[in-house]
Amino acid sequence: MSLSIWLGSLEQGLLWGAMVLGVYITFRVLDYPDLTVDGTFTLGAAITAHCILLGYSPWVALLVAVLCGGLAGMVTAFLHTGLRVAPLLSGILTMIALYSINLRIMGQANLSLLREQTIFTRVGEIALLEPWGPLLLALTVVVLVVGLLYLFLQTELGMSVRATGDNEQMIRSLGVNTGTMKLVGLAIGNALVALSGSLVAQYQGFADVGMGIGMIIAGLAAVIIGEALVGNQTLFRSLLAAIAGSIVYRAVIGLVLQLGMPATDLKLFTSLIVVIALAFPLVRQRLGFRSLRLRGEGVAETGKYTQDLPSRRD
Fold this sequence. Notes:
Keywords: Cell membrane, Membrane, Transmembrane, Transmembrane helix. This is Putative ABC transport system permease protein. By secondary structure, the chain is an all-alpha fold. The protein is built from 14 helices and 2 strands, in the order αααααβαααααβαααα. It has helices at about 5-15, 15-30, 35-55, 60-80, 85-105, 120-125, 135-155, 155-165, 170-175, 180-205, 215-230, 235-260, 265-285, 290-300; strands spanning about 110, 205-210. Strands 1-2 form a two-stranded antiparallel sheet. Helix 2 (about 15-30) runs antiparallel to helix 10 (about 180-205), helix 4 packs antiparallel against helix 10 (about 180-205) and helix 11 (about 215-230) runs parallel beside helix 13 (about 265-285). The radius of gyration is 21 Å and the shape is globular. The N and C termini lie far apart (about 50 Å).
C-alpha cells in the first residue's frame, strides 16, 4: 500500500473513531444493545449535507447534527424507560423511523457536497497544512472527544452512568434514577455517532441514505479489535482501544480492497472480522496462551487479597 492509502486509512479510522466511541458508550459502558447507530450515523450525514446546501456554515451543520443525534438517542431511551419497550426493540424502532426521517431531510437518496465548502476544504486551503490538514483536523477532533469523554465519565454523573451498566439494581438501591442515566448515556453515544456521520459526509463529499447500514457491526468490530490489542483495564485505555480498533479496522479494509476484494463483499468481511475477534480469547485459552493483559486483569480483580496469597514458587 502506498503512503496516500495508509494516510487515507488513518484519516478514516480517526473520523469513524467517534462512532466507535459512541458504540463503546452504549454497549460497554451502559450495557445497552443500541441499534439506533445505523440510523443516527446517516442522520448526522443527512443533516450536515442539508444545512451546507442551504448555505449554513459547516461548523454550524456539525453542531446541529450532534444535537439531533443526541435527540435520537433520547427517543430510544424514552421507548425503553418510559414505554417499557425491550432495549433491542427500542433501538430497532428508532432506527427504522430514522430511515424515513433521513429521506425527508435529504429529499432524495443522495446529496453531493463536492462543490461546497466543508471543514475539510477550508483546512485544505491552508498551504502550511497541505497535505496533512484533514489528518490533523481528524486527530484534533478525536483528542477533544476522548478528553471530554474521559473527564465526563470521571464525574459523579458519569460514574452513575457507568454504575448503571455494571449493576443496575445496586445503583438503583442507592437512590439513582437509572432511567435518567440510560437517557444520558444513549444521548451521548448517539451524539458521537452523529458527529462521526457528519465528519464522514464532509470528508467523502456526499451523504447517502444507506451509508449507515451495518455501522453497528463495524463499531463492534473496532471495539473488540481495540480491546484485544490495547486492553481495557482502565477507562483511558478502553477509550484509546476504541480509537485504535477503528484505525486498525479501516487499515484492514483498505488493505483488502487493494488486494482485489469486491466492495460488495465488505459487509461479509466485516462479519468475519467480528467472529474472529470474538473467538480469539477462546482460541487463545484452548491453545494455552496467557497474555500480560489477562494477568493484569486477574490482579485487578483480586485486589488487596493477592498480597496474602503464597507464590507458586513457594
